[in-house]
Amino acid sequence: MARIGATERAGLPDRAFAYVDSRGRRRLPIHDPAHVRNALSRFDQVAFEDEAARARARTRLLQAAKKYKIVPVGFIAGQLQSERALGGRRAGEAALPSGFVTMLMTDIEGSTALVRRLGERYGDLLDELCTIQRRAVAEAGGQEVEARADEFFAAFEAPRSAVDAAVAIQRELLGRALLDDVEVRVRIGIHSGYPTSRASNYIGVDVHTASRICGAGHGGQIVVSGNTREAVMASVPDGVGFRSLGAHRPRGLRDDVALFQVAAKDLPSRFPPLRMS
After folding, report:
1. What DSSP character marks residue 242?
2. Which of 8, 37, 176, 240 is 20 to 30 A distant from 232 in Cα terms?
3. Measuring CA to CA, which residue among 224, 261, 265 is closest to residue 105?
4. Which residues of the chain have pLDDT under 70?
């Protein structure tokens, strides 16, 4: 279904959006299947005024998903995981790293096809994959920020630790089938910068940069920014190197970003060009 133009969008009633904030800005449009799917993927990027506003938006969004026969398995799983992560920090877990932070993001390649293939079992696959990622992050000294739908976000004080975790994740998944019969390929993006810390998450351009770097890669690939590569060079892990992929301008950002592929023993080294569109 074609996306509507700005004029048509402006003419929609408030009920066509999942959330209208106190300034009257209409967020997460839910008037057609394409926008429902987009809203599901972007839900946790919206800064709600309070938990009541979040709950109202979640309800409207799930009602829209039901209307268009969209099964939001990953969204529901992600919400539950985010709530558990948030609850743990409220109960006294260490605060997220601040200052110069290295952010690791992962995304499942071909997730839509997997949802169609697995149906309700997709939630079980996400649980198994998150267990692998959480273990690798914890063993490397990082902290989970959030897990939503088919995406995973972790933060590290030490840039090298993020690279160690990424390599461990890819090695664990290489040639391994989850749910006994499903091979999952995950792309990983890493960026170091100064994101703005919130109680349980981060916001800012550096967060978007990490997300765009993750989205540019391919399943089985680890892509890092020049910031991360420079910060890691003084303590490069044995058997790990960086191959230049050139400077690119990720979608929505103003400046070019130098990107590098992490090369490590036993991991694939050849991938198609980055997906920068």
Report:
1. E
2. 176
3. 224
4. 1-5, 45, 71-94, 277
Show the DSSP H helices in the chain as ranges. Answer: 6-10, 33-42, 51-67, 73-90, 111-118, 122-139, 159-173, 205-216, 226-232
**Strand order from edge to edge, sheet including 240-248:** 143-148, 151-156, 101-108, 186-193, 222-225, 257-264, 240-248
pTM for this entry: 0.68
What phi and psi, each to the nearest 5 degrees, are found at residue 133?
Answer: -70, -40
Q: Which amino acid is at 110?
A: G
96-264 in CATH: which number?
3.30.70.1230
Asked whether 67 and 176 are in contact (CB, 8 A), the reply is no
Ordered by start, the domain boundaries in the chain are 6-70, 96-264
Other CB atoms within 10 Å distance of the CB of residue 234: 8
- For 42-65, the pLDDT digits (tens) are 777 677 777 777 778 877 877 787
* pLDDT score recorded for residue 91: 47
Other beta carbons within 10 Å of 271: 15
Position 4 scores a pLDDT of 65
CA dihedral 272, 274, 276, 277 (to 10 degrees): 10
Give residue-wise pLDDT tens across range 230-246: 999 878 878 899 999 99
Phi and psi for 243 in degrees, rounded to 5?
A: -110, 125
First to last CA, the chain: 20
